[in-house]
Write a structure and sequence with these properties.
single chain, 268 residues, alpha/beta, Rossmann fold, eight-stranded mixed sheet, three-stranded antiparallel sheet, phosphatase activity
Length: 268
């Protein structure tokens, strides 16, 4: 995904479809290049890549406390946010599910929705999206910046839902447990997800503090924090670098933008 960096820059300017396609292509080329480079150099993360294939032990990151939680014991509104789980502070939590069935992890930006600063969205794009039946809404996000009077700066964001999003979530819930995993910050992502998940279909929401850094990339989504059984978990993300640590579990999708009102990725 293209994570929202800070709430002040919580949304990117509108990007034409052609540029979106080229960016996706460059991401894939870079992804495979880094894997090849690791093999040639014998980089430290190579053993981890091989371990994913052979289902051996996780990589040599600093051990984290582990909370083994059966899914049935988690309320549908449970959150792991900024080192706090349902109001209980933890040093750094790894939540592992006893997966009784499939666990589907979903990215947010450019996978389920696309979001832009409201002032940057051309009127014609909004009109075309509305004419095509694309659902959209606006949210307010608190920024890390301050106004002249010292009050937190408010960022206005326009969010476009991927066509068929809500039906897709309902159908997946029939055979799998849903987890939202975004590299976005909670102040931006939480109110957004509250709008698209009014039925609390996500069993868990993970934000930027739950991502890890590797030698080449930051904000990588390590699935070992969710399950010890990689045969029962998949992640859907438009950015292949997000599942760099478990490439066999990744399902890439075409990045979604407001310039693609007839997108059918989740419909099919």
């Amino acid at each position: 995904m293209a994570p929202m960096g800070q709430p002040a820059a919580a949304a990117e300017v509108y990007v034409p479809m052609t540029l979106q396609v080229w960016r996706g292509l460059v991401n894939w080329v870079g992804f495979f290049f880094q894997i090849i480079l690791q093999i040639l150099r014998g980089a430290p993360c190579l053993p981890h890549l091989l371990s994913c294939i052979s289902s051996s032990s996780p990589p040599a990151f600093r051990p984290l406390p582990v909370a083994e939680v059966p899914l049935n014991d988690l309320s549908s509104s449970a959150h792991v946010e900024n080192g706090v789980v349902d109001g209980r502070p933890v040093e750094k939590l790894t939540v592992r599910f006893f997966c009784l069935h499939l666990l589907v992890v979903l990215d947010l930006d450019e996978t389920l929705v696309c979001a832009y600063e409201t002032c940057s969205v051309p009127a014609i794009v909004r009109a075309q999206a509305t004419e095509a039946g694309l659902k959209w809404f606006e949210i307010e996000c608190l920024s890390s910046g301050k106004e002249s009077d010292g009050k937190p700066k408010v960022n206005y964001v326009t969010v476009f839902e991927r066509p068929g999003l809500r039906e897709f979530l309902k159908r997946v819930c029939e055979f799998a447990d849903l987890v939202l995993f975004t590299a976005g910050l909670e102040d931006y992502a939480r109110p957004l997800v509250d709008r698209i998940d009014v039925e609390n279909l996500f069993k868990l929401r993970l934000y930027r503090p739950s991502t890890v850094s590797t030698e080449f990339r930051e904000h990588v989504k390590d699935l070992s924090c969710l399950s010890k059984d990689f045969s029962r978990i998949v992640i859907v993300d438009n950015n292949p670098f997000s599942f760099l640590l478990q490439p066999l579990n990744g399902i890439p999708c075409v990045p979604f933008s407001a310039g693609q009102p007839y997108d059918d990725q989740v419909i099919h």
